[in-house]
Amino acid sequence: MEEYRNPIILSAVGLYMFLCIVVGIWAYRKTKSSHDFFMAGRNLGVVVTAFAVFSTTLSGFGFVGGPGLVYRMGMSSIWMVVIAVLGFSLTNFLHGKRLRLLSELGNSKSLPDVVFLRYNNNNTRILIAIAIILGVFGYLATQILAMSVVLRDILTETEMFSSMTLEMSMVISCSILVFYSVTGGIIASVYTDLVQGGIMIVAAILIFLTVMYTFDGGITEMNQVIQADDPAAIGPWGTLGMVGCMSWLLMFGLGGSGQPHVITKLMMNKKVSDAKHILPVSIMGYLFSGLLWIGIGLVMRALVVSGQHPELAAPDEAASQFLQHYAHPVLAGIVFAGLFAAIMSTADAFLNIGTAAIMHDIPKAIGKKIKNELQWARITTGLITIIAAFFALWASNNGDLVALLGAFGWGTFAAAIVPVVTLGFNWKRGTAIAANVAVIASLLINFIVKIGKFSVPYGIDIGALSMLVALFLFITISFVTKPDVLEADVAEVMDM
C-alpha cells in the first residue's frame, strides 16, 4: 500500500475539500439572518457545543504548531496541554451560565454586545471589538499559515506540484476558506467541529500508538535519544526554562477563559443547564487529541537526532512529515482530512467574531445601522481573510512558528478579555473606566513588544505579562472609581 500513499492522502484531502463546499452550501441555506450567521440561532445541543469548544481551542495551533514547538523546545509546551483541564473548567465555571443568560437577556449577536449589557458603556464595547479584531488577525493568521504549510508539504510530494510554494498554497487554502466561511457562517463551523472532533479523538489515539512503535524500544528509547542530544529538552521545563513555562501555564490556564472564539460557543447552546454536560465532553476530547501534539513532536525530534530522518526545514513540518513517512497511509489521510477540518472550522470561527466586531459591534456603538448586514458580513469575511494571509506571510518571513504566532493571538485575547469579561462578569464592583484602561494597556503592551521585536527576560510570554498588568489596572481602578449602577436584570444574573 506504500506505493499508493500519496494518492490516498490526496484523495482524503480532496474529499474533505469537496465536503467543505457541500457543508458551505447546506449552511448557506440555513443562514437566513445575521443572527444565524453570528450565533447559529442559539440552538446548539450539548455534543455539538462541546466538540466545537475543544476543537476550536486545538485547531491548527495544536495539530501543526504543537508538534513544531515540541520538536524545537522539547517538553516546554507540555504545560499548555496540561493546563487545558483547568482552563476548560475555569471557562465553564466562570462563563457557562452567566454568559448564556446575559446573551439571551440582550438577544446578543456577539461578545461585545454582552459586554455593553454588563458595563452600559459604548467605549467598552468598541475597545473589546478592537481587541477582538487585532487578536483575530494574529490567530487567524495561525490557521492560514498552518493550513498552507501542510497543503504545501502534501503537494510537494507529488511530481506535478513538486515546486509548490508557500504563497501559492496560501492562495488555494484561502480561496476554499473564504467560500466555506462566506456561505456558511458559524453554522458551518460548529457542525464541521462535530465531525472533525470525532475523527481527531480516534486518530490521535491511533497516531500515538504508531509513535510508540516507531522505535524498537518505544518511548524509552525515544527519550534516551533526545536526552543524549540535549538533556534539557526531555526535562520537565524543556529548553524554554521554568519561568517561561510558568508564564504559559498562566496564559493558557486563566487566559483560556478570555478566548472569544471559545466562550462565544457557550452563548449558542439551547439550554443554560447544558453547561455542566459540555465541560466533561470538551475536556476528554481535548486530552485525547492532545496526544498528537506531544507524541509527534517528540518522535520527530528523536528521528532527526538519531539520523533516521533528514533535519526539518522548519519545526512546523513535524506533523506533516511524520504522517507522510511513518503513519499508515489510510490513517495519514484521515488525520490530514481531520486536520484541515480543524483548521477550517476554527478559522471560520475567527472570521465570524472578527466580522461581527467590524460590521455589527462598532457600527452599533457609534449609532450607525448597517443595511443588509448579512451581505456586508460576507464581504467583510473575505477582506479579513486577505489581510490575515498577508500577516501570516510577514510573520513566517520573520521566523515565527505557527504555535508562537498562535500564542500571540491567544495572549492578545487573554490580556484584553480576562479582566473585562472573566473577572468583570463575576465581580459587580468592576467599572467601565477600569475596563477601558485595562484593554488599552493590554493592547499597547502586546503590540509594542511584537512590532518592536523586544525580548522579555527569562522567556516570559508577553501575553501573560500584559494580562497581569491589565488585571492589576482593572482591579485597582475599579476600587478607586465610583461604582457603576447596574441594570436590575443584569445585577440579578450576576448574583446567580
Labels describing this entry:
496 residues, mainly alpha, Sodium/glucose cotransporter, 21 helices, 76% helix
The gist of it:
By secondary structure, this protein is mainly α. The protein has one domain: Up-down Bundle (Sodium/glucose cotransporter), CATH 1.20.1730.
Going by CATH, the architecture would be Up-down Bundle
Report the helical percentage: over 70%
Total helix count?
A: 21
- Quaternary structure type: single chain
Question: How many domains would you count in the coordinates?
Answer: 1
As a whole number of angstroms, the C-alpha radius of gyration is 22 Å
> What is the CATH H-level superfamily?
Sodium/glucose cotransporter
CATH topology: Sodium/glucose cotransporter
What share of residues are in beta strands?
under 5%
Q: In sequence order, what are the helices and strands, one letter per element?
A: HHHHHHHHHHHHHHHHHHHHH
Helix/strand class: mainly alpha
Distance between the termini: 59 Å
Runs in which pLDDT lies below 50 for 5 or more consecutive residues are none
Let me know the number of strands. 0
What is the residue-averaged pLDDT? Answer: 81
Question: Largest sheet, described in full?
Answer: none
